[in-house]
Amino acid sequence: MTGCRRAHRRLDHLVDTLPLDATRRPSLLPGWTVGHLLSHLARNADSVSRVVEAAQQGEVVGQYRGGREQRDTEIETGAHRDPEEIYGDVGRTMRHLEAVWESTGELTWSTGLGLRGAEPVAIADFAFLRWREVELHLVDLGLSDLGGPTWADLDEQYLEHEWRWTSESLAGRIPPSQVLLLSPTDRPARTFGRGDRIVTARGSTSELLAWLTGRAVGGGPLHLEPWI
């Protein structure tokens, strides 16, 4: 939560400095504008608040009442709102989520669950998942010329958590015939997979994560199953 709050403050500061026409700019995600991404971040904050508030009552619910369809519709509709409404929405929903976290007791943090899609996820893990949304989408906004971050600016503690989290599921994303040797320039190398053909990916941790999360320009050294 501490790391996520840091990311929230960075997002808050960036939004406070954006011109009104920034919401119409294309983001780095295909088909999405800055307005789409900011609307997504607001609705994501609401969705995490929803699962935590339900867990406080001993309930297990999904992030979006209407599932993926509701999520996509709200993002598309929200992207075309007045820019000041979008900017205000981002700040309001972040503050509400942080207030919900503050009101959450130890038992809920220890035993509470929410649904991410159809998968049960510990409430404590939703704090990291929210951090991921903000940290990565700050870069995806593509606003480095207006003070926004790039891949080189990712929070160091976030990188540590994301490296572990993404590594846990990496073996299942690799073709059966191949072994992936991840060779970061700033940490020990690791292998994933059980095939006969070794494929090496080399770069900084942030550069490799850009590829592993489907954001590397030009793809990577092998085909990976989608990142979730």
State the end-to-end distance: 21 Å
Q: Main beta sheet, described?
A: 3 strands, mixed
C-alpha geometry: globular
Strands in their spatial order, largest beta sheet: 4-3-5
Q: Using only CA atoms, what is the Rg?
A: 18 Å
CATH superfamily of the largest domain: dinb family like domain
Class from helix and strand fractions: mainly alpha
SS field, number of helical segments: 8
Give the total of domains. 2
Helix content range: 40-55%
| CATH class annotation of the largest domain | Mainly Alpha
The quaternary state of the protein chains shown equals single chain
Mean pLDDT: 96
CATH topology-level name of the largest domain: Four Helix Bundle (Hemerythrin (Met), subunit A)
What is the count of β-strands? 5
Q: Low-confidence stretches at least 5 residues in length (pLDDT < 50)?
A: none
Q: In what range is the share of β-strand residues?
A: 5-15%
Strand and helix layout:
Layout: H1 2-17, H2 34-56, H3 67-78, H4 83-102, H5 106-111, E1 113-116, E2 119-122, H6 123-140, H7 156-168, E3 178-184, E4 190-192, E5 197-203, H8 205-212
